[in-house]
Design goal:
Layout (H helix, E strand, L loop, with lengths): L9 E10 L2 E11 L5 E4 L6 H9 L6 E6 L10 E4 L10 H11 L7 H11 L15 H13 L5 E5 L7 H16 L3 E5 L3 H7 L2 E6 L2 E7 H6 L4 H7 L6
Parallel strand pairs: 3-7, 3-8, 5-6, 6-7
Antiparallel strand pairs: 1-2, 1-4, 8-9
Helix pairs in contact: 2-3, 2-4, 4-5
Length: 240
């Protein structure tokens, strides 16, 4: 689906983001490479959402540098983000996608086929004409993912996409993430669910209080974490 991404790698170099007198993330050094999904984990307030928004280019670094494909100011044409609580437009499912395709300047003559393909990818092809706001929570999340994919991103940021979903809807969303990954899209997502992280992640990033605690391949992280904070988090203990 995609050739080499001009957005990758996404690199954080000594990045600090401050709001007022609160440090949201501090001294982050991190790189997102092509391949399997990168999963951000950590307790509430760890900085996961801030990091995703910064990676998307929505929040500037107070200090440090974020680069996309080695550039400081890359236009976010091939990046997309799906927020935890996406808003559905007051129109049908497929019209939500048409709106996203128009916003992405997709060729008008290709929009119908592209919208159908996206609905099929997320398993909503039989609900194309259903009002989006009447879809179930899981269906709305899948539609929001289809809208994000309307940008044809090479990098897709997902902010806890299954936080409010039941196990069936969660499994369906994870299947879509796997399908998107197979199409060549780099997925970076946050989650509170360690089981989900094990199922999806190629590599793990553990954040706590805005600091990068540990990162590395998922198998090695879960088999033998290097830090006490990581060991405690995997064991289900509260990080304070």
């Amino acid at each position: 689906m995609h050739g080499p991404s001009s957005e990758l790698p996404v690199a954080f170099q000594d990045v600090t983001i401050v709001a007022g007198d609160v440090t949201l993330i501090g001294d982050i050094n991190l790189i997102f490479l092509p391949g399997l999904p990168t999963v951000l984990i950590g307790p509430n307030g760890a900085g996961k959402t801030t990091l995703l928004r910064a990676a998307m280019g929505l929040i500037p670094a107070t200090r440090g540098r974020i680069t996309w494909g080695g550039r400081d100011a890359a236009p976010p044409d091939r990046r997309a983000i799906m927020f935890q609580r996406p808003v559905m437009l007051r129109r049908s499912a497929i019209d939500n996608i048409f709106y996203a395709l128009a916003a992405a300047n997709a060729p008008r003559e290709a929009r119908q086929d592209r919208a159908n393909d996206l609905l099929k990818l997320v398993g909503l092809q039989n609900l194309a004409d259903r009002p989006a706001r009447l879809l179930s929570g899981g269906e709305q999340q899948k539609l929001a993912l289809a809208r994000a994919l309307a940008r044809a991103p090479t990098v897709l940021f997902l902010d806890e996409p299954t936080a409010s979903l039941d196990p069936y809807a969660t499994k369906a969303m994870e299947d879509v993430v796997h399908a998107v990954t197979r199409l060549g899209v780099k997925v970076v997502m946050s989650t509170h669910d360690l089981g989900q992280a094990k199922r999806i992640a190629g590599d793990i990033v553990l954040l706590h209080r805005g600091r990068l605690i540990e990162s590395g391949p998922a198998d090695a992280f879960f088999a033998g974490p290097h830090t006490e904070e990581a060991r405690r988090f995997i064991a289900g203990e509260l990080l304070v």
